[in-house]
Amino acid sequence: MPRTFYSYRLGREVPLLSDEEYEPIGAHLENYSDAIMEYLRIQGCSITEARNRNPCRQKALADYEELTGVKLEHPEQIYALALSHYGRPCPNCAKPFRTPQARMCAECGHQLPEGEVAGPLTAEE
């Protein structure tokens, strides 16, 4: 089950997905880009029209909402919701580090000891 953590890209707390949960939704996004390019090639329309007419967009959003109960506005937001993209919670402010390789918390400025990195955020945290 997804756990709620702060997402820097979305600027709010949202359910983040484990790799297993993210994989099928992420597959829609891979298809989403390919489908947009194909629609643009065939129809010769604007990229906005191609995005709006793409069924992969609705499928990715619907699958995320079904899994988490949270409705997102844009499918691009899903890219920011993979648990493995974040570092463990900061020992000072408890928000996750921006990446597993981070050495400083972007939220409060807490510095990890020399040579230490945040490491991955896990669903158990």
Strand sequence of the main sheet, in spatial order?
A: 1-2
Helicity, in percent?
Answer: 25-40%
Average pLDDT, all residues: 90
Unreliably modeled segments: none
3D shape: elongated
Query: How many strands?
Result: 2
SSE run: EEHHH
Explained architecture:
A hairpin with a 4-residue loop joins strand 1 and strand 2 (12-16). This protein is mainly α. The mean pLDDT is 90. Helices cover 36% and strands 8% of the residues. A two-stranded antiparallel ribbon has the order 1-2. The radius of gyration is 17 Å and the shape is elongated.
Structural topology:
Elements: E1 3-7, E2 12-16, H1 19-43, H2 47-52, H3 55-68
Antiparallel strand pairs: 1-2
Helix pairs in contact: 1-3
Q: Nutshell version of this structure?
A:
This protein is 36% helix and 8% strand. It has 125 residues and is mostly helical.
What descriptors fit this protein?
mainly alpha; elongated
